[in-house]
Amino acid sequence: MPSFYDFALVCQSLSQTQSRLQMAETVGTFLAALDIDEAEIAARFIVGRAVEQGEEKRLQISGRAIWKIVAGLTGTEDQGEEIFTAAEDFGEAVEMMLKYRPNDPDPTLTIRELNEKFAAIADIEGRHARNRKLEALRELFERASALEAKYIAKILIREMRHGMSEGLMLEAIAKMASRPVADVRRIHMLEADLGRVVRMLRSPDGVSGELSTSVNVGAPTARIVKPLKPMLAQPAVDIAEAFAMLGPEISFEHKIDGARVQVHHLGAGEVRIFSRRMNEITPSLPEVVEIASRLGETPAILDGEVIAVDARGRPVAFQEVMRRFGRTRDVEKIRAEQPVQLFVFDLLALDGTLLIDHPLRERIAMLTELATGTGIDLVERIVQPNLAAAEKFYADAVAKGYEGVMAKLLASPYTPGARGRGWLKIKHTHTLDLVIIAKTFWKVLKAEGAY
Q1: In sequence order, what are the beta bridge partners of 215?
Q2: Cβ atoms of 308 and 321 closer than 8 Å
Q3: Crossing angle of helices 146-157/90-98, nearest 10°?
Q4: Using CA atoms, how far apart are residues 160 and 90, in angstroms rounded to an integer?
Q5: Neighbours of 437 (CB within 10 A)
Q6: Considering 68, 150, 255, 408, which one is annotated as catalytic?
Q7: Spelled out in words, what is the top-level CATH class assigned to the domain 232-427?
Q8: CB-CB contact of 134 with 189 (8 Å)
Q9: What does R_g of the chain's alpha carbons equal in angstroms?
Q10: Run means of pLDDT, 10 residues per run, the chain, 451 residues
């Protein structure tokens, strides 16, 4: 059975080649040799994800904490700066420190076992949770060999530095499953988590049921359980450039300086809210739950922004809305102190049907009809304006305190996780004169009290 040490050797080999083809082949072959559970875990680990996408916040392990633990195990507190200067990266510094131990433990960790350890650390809550997390982490590093510890540290701080990007991992998964890369990318759009993509492709029935429908047919079934990755936009200098890039068949909408949210209304008032990073934040935003609940029995996935507003309803600084995210204590108190407002700009699913392949024009029409009479605020939008009207719309957006506008091709589909060619952002910029200051990771560690 392949061990975590074997995993570390694969990662080591990736850092020693620049050939994308060879890297994809190496990882694809490795994943194919694992059982389905190990392959699911290894796919996440290789791109530096210790837990499932959207669960990272529960782990709460910093590089500073790892450094203090390893230094304490090896008695190298006074040699930290020297070691870090000699190392290529954080993971290698951890490996070098652990070589100061009299004996390097035999590698005994398995991929599955390490996954269980990470999950157990993430699950620690309540009194003295941080100290208990760090104690569990210390026990893990105490048991790990130097090479294993190098990659445990890299996974935890998401700094693999071996060139295996998420996009290249999709190519490796395609090789593992002997499937076209386009199919794998499509599945990843809908599932977001690389491990779940591997599991689907390695399952006995292959990609079947709901996902098979979504890959091969134009009207897939929406799995309103896990969030989709948000579609992103490319920058444009001004309104004229937006017309030059997209043509006249476009809409413009206010670009709100808020926090991106994906709101899943499952029907009968059941609502789940996810952040841009796909962390669930439902308890933090009770007013958004109340707003989405107005949809009654209709299941839907809404894409929008939450902004903090003042007493007059004008947007305030982005930092104010971030005070609300992740809060689970005194929610009603902070709700009264800092109200927020939801603006919806896209509809990703309706009545169980995923709409991401539908053109924006159709999604806007369906969203408008859905929101009518509910009191759900839609982002202000102007469709197919001429240049003069678009320029005025932009000026009005800035005057109202917004960042600028979004320009969107009316024929564009919704491409989860991609910086789509059909979406542009035109921001009102402020110019600052700045001085660049370099700061090493070691100095940051010292400043934060690791030494």
Answers
A1: none
A2: yes
A3: 150
A4: 10
A5: 5
A6: 255
A7: alpha beta
A8: no
A9: 24
A10: 91 94 97 96 96 82 92 83 87 92 91 96 90 94 95 95 94 96 91 92 67 37 69 95 97 92 90 91 92 94 92 79 78 84 96 94 97 95 97 95 94 92 87 57 52 42
In the numeric block, the tokens 């009102």 are attached to 428
Which DSSP helix (H) or strand (E) runs through 99? none
Residues 6+ apart with CB under 8 A from 410: 249, 250, 251, 359, 360, 361, 364, 383, 384
The phi, psi pair for 263, rounded to 5°, reads: -105, 120
| Residue showing tokens 């197919």 | 384
Amino acid at 134: L
Q: How many CB atoms lie within 10 A of CB 49?
A: 21
CA 378 to chain centre: 25
CATH H-level, domain 48-157: superfamily: DNA ligase, ATP-dependent, N-terminal domain (1.10.3260.10)
For 409, counting Cβ atoms within 10 Å of its Cβ (0-12 exposed, 13-18 middle, 19+ buried), the class is: buried
Q: How far apart are CA 301 and CA 223, in angstroms?
A: 10
CA neighbor of 355 nearest in space, from 305, 412, 277: 412
Q: Report CA 339 to chain centroid distance, whole Å.
A: 26
Q: Which two tokens stand for residue 138?
A: 């210390």
pLDDT number for residue 446: 53
Both tokens assigned to 87: 């190392």
Cross-strand partners of 344: 304, 378
**pTM for the full model?**
0.77
> The tokens of 300 are what?
């839907």
Amino acid at the residue 45: F
Check if the beta carbon of residue 201 is closer than 8 Å to that of residue 179.
yes
Question: Is residue 439 annotated as a catalytic residue, yes or no?
Answer: no
Distance, in Å, from the CA atom of 150 to the CA atom of 71, rounded to the nearest integer, reads 13
- In the chain, which segments carry CATH 1.10.3260.10? 48-157
What count of other Cβ atoms lies within 10 Å of the Cβ of residue 125? 9
Q: What is the pLDDT of residue 279?
A: 87
What are the residues whose beta carbons fall under 8 Å from the beta carbon of 235, sequence distance 6 or more?
Answer: 424, 425, 426, 427
Residues of the chain with CATH 3.30.470.30: 232-427
Identify the burial level of 372 via C-beta atoms within 10 angstroms of its C-beta, where 0-12 means exposed, 13-18 middle and 19 or more buried: exposed
The rounded distance, in Å, linking the Cα atoms of 66 and 69 is: 5
Structure tokens at 309: 């507003």
Structure tokens at 95: 């490996």
Tell which residue, 233, 296, 289, has the closest CA to residue 263. 289
